[in-house]
Amino acid sequence: MASVKPWSLVLVVFCIMSLSYFVNGAGSNEGLGASFIFGDSLVDAGNNNYLQTLSRANIPPNGIDFKASGGQPTGRYTNGRTIGDIVGEELGVPSYAVPYLAPNSTGKAILYGVNYASGGGGIMNATGRIFVNRLGLDIQIDYFNNTRKQFDKLLGLSKAKDYISKRSIFSITIGANDFLNNYLLPVLSVGARISESPDAFIDDMINHLRNQLTRLYQLDARKFVIGNVGPIGCIPYQKTLNQLNENECVDLANKLAMQYNRRLKELLSELNGKLQGAIFVHANVYDLVMELITNYTKYGFTTASKACCGNGGQFAGIIPCGPTSSLCKDREKHVFWDPYHPSEAANVIIARQLLSGSTKYISPVNLKQLRNL
């Protein structure tokens, strides 16, 4: 079963690269710094391939349009590139951030960046239990701590700190699973809804995230991109499960996302004032994706409701994408690749807004501006 991911964070995560140089034999003094990617299946580049988990995308036709692999699945939950891949290319990064659990995530390969994201992962440690195994954000930061030590060995203490703090971008795309695969599924995932109000659950999420971001800051992270949770009530899975019409979305899921998003924006403002030298960029994924869903024809799509790859119900939104799934021929015309995740065509539009868009969608600066700070 593929993990249910918010469109949302989706965005943010992807934005991740910054100008930098390679030192101590890593290359010339010009180039790009590392892209450190944290999050869920929206930005997982293959970590779940190395876990015993029910949430995997290393089966066809996932990756059918991913040129770097010749159309073979890599563990990305889409038909081609994630937003993070696209952003990196646009900023000139010569190589995709390597999955932390991959065998080649060693030596100089990590100088381009490392991807810690995991399908099914969330802010809360209980999130995603229905998938058996996944990497929550706490574990992802534990892994970055290991990477941080490797940078010291590769570059030396002083240059490593400079490379991490000034040349690299930290992208966090997470939060949707905390609702879809935790709070809204109390029976399946031992969620908290039966004993905890939405306000209390979101308080817990924000408090956990505050501690997690502060921990990254203590490990010398300074340039952050944080995506809010997208309109998770509008994904094909939710629309199919709740037997909605094409233009309807699940009200409760979207209200929870918006409630969390208000608190997230306040948290990032708090951290920008509190953690000296850091900049926390807010990616308004909710409004960006809702614009895409509402006005999909304007962007060249023919549907923002039906999954290109999937089975079950009017919107092919029940059974995750796999070898036996129905597969559309016009993949570039679908906003959603599968019941939960955007297509590469949608990711391209989202990435462009993150790279060069106005403060309506990304603030206080866009990703190209963040890279050059």
TrEMBL record:
| InterPro entries xref list | GDSL, GDSL_Est/Lipase, SGNH_hydro_sf, SGNH_plant_lipase-like
Q: Does the keyword Hydrolase apply?
A: yes
| Superkingdom, taxonomy of origin | Eukaryota
| One biological process term in Gene Ontology | lipid catabolic process
Pfam families reported for this sequence:
Lipase_GDSL (PF00657)
| Sorted UniProt keywords | Hydrolase, Lipid degradation, Lipid metabolism, Signal
The secretion signal range is: 1-25
SUPFAM superfamilies the UniProt entry points to: SGNH hydrolase
What GO molecular function terms would the record report?
hydrolase activity, acting on ester bonds
PANTHER family found in the cross-reference section: GDSL ESTERASE_LIPASE, GDSL LIPASE/ACYLHYDROLASE FAMILY PROTEIN (AFU_ORTHOLOGUE AFUA_4G14700)
Please report which protein family the annotation says this sequence is part of: Belongs to the 'GDSL' lipolytic enzyme family.
* Designated name of the protein: SGNH hydrolase-type esterase domain-containing protein
What organism does the record attribute this protein to?
Gossypium mustelinum (Cotton)
